[in-house]
Amino acid sequence: MAQKTNLVPQVLEYLNKKGYNKTEAMLRKESLNVDAHGQPILTRIEDTGGRKWGQSFRLIKGWIEHSLEIYRPELVRLLWPIFVHAFLDCIIDCYTTDALAFFREYKGDFEAEQGQELRELEKISLPEHVQDNELATLYRQKKYRVSLSPMAFAVLIEFLEARDNEGGKVILNLINAHVDVATLNRAATARGLQKLMEEKEKSGRMGELGEDEGIQGHQAGSTNTDVNAVGTLSKLSLAPMPMEPDLMEDVKADLSHEDSVHPPINGQSTLVDQFEENIKQEPADDAAPNRDQIPFPPSTARDVAMEVQKVKENRDRFRIEGRTGGIGPGLSVTMFTFHNTFDSVNCIEFSGDNTLAAIGTAESYIRVWSLDNRPLVSPQDPPGSQPSSSRRLIGHSGPVYALSFSPSAAIPEQSSNDDTTASAATDSQPRYMLSCSADGTVRLWSLDTWTNLVVYRSHNSPVWDVRFCPHGHYFLSCSADRTARLWSTPQIAPLRIFVGHDSDVETIAWHPNGAYVFTGSGVGDKTVRVWSIVNGNQVRIFTGHTGNITAISCAPNGHLFASGDDKGEIMLWDLRTGRRTKTLKGHHKGGVWSLDWSVESSVLVSGGADKTVRVWDVQQNKESQNKSNGDS
């Protein structure tokens, strides 16, 4: 060993005698990085094998945790994508032991927000697993988008370059390869960075997942991934669907007749005036969709009766205002309990006229009840059969996951001898119901004969949700095959297939005007997307949830919609701007399973796995526009 150590001076002396000056200088420089035993001294972290990712991550994590408070909420969003790709790179380079140790050491930092993803990544221990794992493939194929202010980005780059040999270069390479850092100068162009951070602190969104953050790589709300298209959003037609001229005249005639038969009481507007107010379109309002682009069947007497009942209900309803000033109740809630279900009820649905309730069960059947104890009879019932206030519908071969009644209208209470009311009640009741199941089918049921009319087959996986269009005729379904499909009731093939989600499409909703649909997805996606049914294009995409999307609902005013996840968070979004307006936190144990709005779009009701129903005041006014957290 001593002879080997003395070889370096001997070689240097030989090179000097021969005049190989450059070679001698190079050898002298290299010999400085050799220890007493002739072993190389590692001066670069890149030479430490599988440990380099753990040491590099420790470097960036420690720096972010001790960085200036004004930058920390932005910079901390980088840790998750860096963690994921550091782990995957370590696995791909066959440092399995180091990769698993790294994963165990830091996974606790992300358990609260990314628990589902961590469970997916934990299955990976070999390079072959990376290719077979859907989540890993998604992260390797698409860049993870994070928005930083220019100052925060400059500070980050300066630090990484200064600590080049200590792990900065490793982190910089990861960011360059797998992270889309968008330096959106929102702070400078809007209110200043300090103002922006104060706003985040007030809203309770410090360090929270941004609405423009995620694996998709897009501007907030926009489906355009071009970095040069910052702030560019397609204009949406959010106003109500225009009424057919003939239908409008028929409705006015019926309302005029109602006003003459039942004159309004003192202080109450006439039904005709109420109707005119409802359909009035101000020049500054949102544009209405083109009715000619969305074909509907010709209007019938039933449609006239439905519109008349809607006007009556709109005028005579009790208005649930978010702030009543202490005068009168702020809200009213009615609850129903189903006994002896033995945990078999998967879904519950109420008809629009509040006369029917239906459940879908894990035993593959549907049961419908009459809430007013009216017998549910069918022309096909055997003579002399005993009428019942409930019906069982059998046809599916798998658990039933969702139900949807065709549109109907609640009937205002009138005198018992009012023939007009009795006729309207018959006309405005739902005539059909949709159901979807694990058997991959959607079924249309007649509520006149209580039989199955049509079976719609197109999805190749379980169908999670189904929803009738607010105007009837069309309906939407979504499935584990990662698609949502638009149908019309007379046709057995879908009219549109909405493709784009990276995971199961688990919940859907309609815009009140029927021109747009909403889809929500889960693991690996966690986005809500808005689609135009006219051309099938995706017009909005919203990210920000850390849990799987479990419920979505659009407000009756057509401007806001709410989305809930299995972490218990509810987010409110503005369709026009494509931005999140509020984050509602109250369901602390489990997910949010259902969402619904008041007619005024000022009150949101949510039901969750924590066995609570929460009523949220989401009214937008001058006092509350600066508040981002809702009150329940």
UniProtKB/TrEMBL annotation:
Single Gene Ontology MF annotation: RNA polymerase II general transcription initiation factor activity
One GO process term, biological-process aspect: transcription initiation at RNA polymerase II promoter
InterPro entries associated with the record: LisH, TFIID_NTD2, TFIID_NTD2_sf, WD40/YVTN_repeat-like_dom_sf, WD40_PAC1, WD40_repeat_CS, WD40_repeat_dom_sf, WD40_rpt
Alphabetic keyword roster: Nucleus, Repeat, Transcription, Transcription regulation, WD repeat
A single cellular component GO annotation: transcription factor TFIID complex
A Pfam family this chain is assigned to: TFIID_NTD2
Chief place of localization: nucleus
TFIID subunit TAF5 NTD2 domain segment(s): 51-179
WD repeats by residue range: 338-379, 414-455, 456-488, 498-541, 542-583, 585-626
Compartment(s) where it occurs, according to its Swiss-Prot or TrEMBL record: Nucleus
Protein's UniProt keywords contain Zinc: no
Region Disordered, residue ranges: 199-226
Residues of the signal peptide: none
Entries under CDD domains matching the protein: TAF5_NTD2, WD40
Entry's family note: Belongs to the WD repeat TAF5 family.
Name this polypeptide is given: TFIID subunit TAF5 NTD2 domain-containing protein
Phylogenetic placement of the source organism: Eukaryota, Fungi, Dikarya, Ascomycota, Pezizomycotina
